[in-house]
Design brief:
alpha+beta; 8-stranded antiparallel β-sheet; elongated
Length: 462
């Protein structure tokens, strides 16, 4: 999520300066009870107090070592401005854990996430006090009384403020004829709801990572996580409540966390539900909608009446094809590591992904390379039989089949089943001449590492 505009490490240095100037300096006394756990204030003092105050805190951390100190020390290391403090965090980590990873923070994270989750009792308060000084709006994200369904030590700051990568809200749309800035091979994310046809070019969304809009009369959020390569479309109204979501500035397993304005709860993009905050445990699950990753030429050919996102977004960005995240997309390296990788595919190999039926359903990932070779691919999720139809642009569309087997597709609109009956492909369904219908299912492309990090139990077809 690190902003393409300002390098992440520049932001970290600016943030560290903010921490130094804004944190209150807690008073430390030599008579403090040395057998009590080190407090958030004492960890903060390593960032803000003068060197003379560090020694008693350092002794206390060493003397009362417990596993919950590890993530707090890692955070202190990230923001430490003084070499003595940075050096202490590493030596304390190595002494307490008996591991020797030095300054390799990725190694420390991987070790940490492999351990049982035993946080300091005030770890959430520590995060609250730390991050509110980077952005006051972060204050509501973390607190001891906020419920969480994920490990807090896996939540990482992405280097930007709340909505620092600005979502496009009700963005300006133009006709296909007016979209002369797009090349035929440019990637677009296409949606069609109630005859409202839209295209959102990747070259623009890579700078914004989210749009909120009303399409076909339905309030929606389209979320494009550049780090994990996933564009997902959600209805934002659940049981009559519309959730206005934005970019939190934080990540979970290299996937962006959204927030909602009303409660400042944090939401998983890939799961479509709250994971930290007042909305946790309320049974909220946003409904996914179908979205297709295709080329501008193919989308325009299928839908000449489409609207398309205008470059007039109100923001000054280089919206040329491939300008954002060029280096990240060109390698297999990660910007933020994850607990575990699966080497059956390369990290950024693309897969078509879907999960239906809630937490108990089987997540499915199908290699995009395989689907390109099999324009008609049958599979199933639990008892649900599906077909994936892939056109010449590489775009994948998934439909439930109800047991119908399809044998031919012209990669345009005509599909033929095993009985020889012809069906017509639309964005929302397959329609047989006798009126039978196979409905479209929500699915999306993703980088393999990102999908596996969110769904390690996924079934891979490659």
């Amino acid at each position: 999520m690190s902003s393409p505009i300002r390098p992440r490490f520049t932001l970290l240095l600016v943030a560290a300066s903010a921490v130094s100037s804004l944190f209150p300096c807690p008073a430390l006394t030599a008579g403090a009870a040395e057998l009590e756990l080190a407090t958030p204030d004492e960890f903060f003092s390593l960032l803000v107090n003068e060197p003379g105050h560090w020694a008693p805190v350092m002794r206390k951390i060493r003397k009362t070592w417990q596993p919950g100190y590890a993530p707090m020390l890692i955070d202190v290391f990230h923001f430490a401005r003084e070499p003595e403090v940075a050096g202490f965090t590493i030596s304390a980590l190595e002494e307490g854990t008996r591991r020797s990873f030095g300054n390799d923070m990725d190694a420390w994270y991987e070790w940490l996430w492999a351990q049982p989750y035993r946080p300091h009792p005030d770890y959430a308060e520590f995060m609250h006090r730390l991050y509110r000084n980077l952005d006051p709006r972060f204050a509501a994200y973390f607190a001891n009384d906020r419920a969480a369904t994920i490990r807090l030590d896996e939540v990482r700051w992405g280097g930007v403020l709340q909505d620092g990568i600005p979502p496009l809200r009700r963005p300006k749309m133009i006709s296909a004829a007016e979209a002369d800035y797009l090349g035929d091979d440019n990637v677009v994310f296409g949606i069609a709801i109630n005859d409202d046809i839209r295209a959102y070019p990747k070259r623009i969304l890579a700078w914004h990572e989210m749009f909120t809009d009303v399409v076909g009369g339905i309030p929606l959020a389209g979320v494009y996580c550049t780090l994990c390569g996933t564009a997902i479309l959600y209805e934002t109204t659940y049981e009559g409540v519309e959730h206005e979501v934005g970019t939190s500035g934080f990540l979970y397993r290299s996937n962006k966390l959204m927030y909602d304005r009303a409660t400042q709860s944090l939401w998983s993009t890939l799961w479509g539900r709250p994971v930290i905050g007042p909305l946790v445990g309320k049974g909220i699950q946003l409904r996914g909608r179908a979205i297709v990753t295709t080329t501008w030429a193919e989308w325009r050919r299928r839908h000449p009446q489409t609207l398309v996102l205008s470059k007039d977004t109100g923001h000054n960005r280089d919206y040329s094809e491939g300008a954002a995240y060029r280096e990240y997309f060109s390698t297999d390296r990660l910007m933020f590591n994850v607990p575990k990788l699966d080497r059956r595919l390369k990290n950024k190999d693309e897969v078509l992904t879907l999960v239906l039926g809630g937490d108990e359903a089987e997540p499915l990932a199908i290699a995009a390379e395989l689907l390109a070779k099999e324009p008609v691919h049958h599979d199933r999720i639990g008892d649900l039989e599906i077909v994936v139809l892939t056109d010449a642009s590489g775009a994948n569309r998934v439909y439930s089949t109800g047991g119908v087997r399809f044998s031919e597709w012209d990669q345009d609109r005509r599909v033929v089943d095993a009985a020889g009956d012809a069906w017509t492909l639309d964005e929302d369904r397959l329609l047989a001449e006798d009126g039978r219908v196979c409905h479209r299912l929500p699915a999306q492309r993703a980088f393999w590492f990102g999908w596996f990090a969110a769904y390690p139990e996924t079934r891979l077809v490659d």
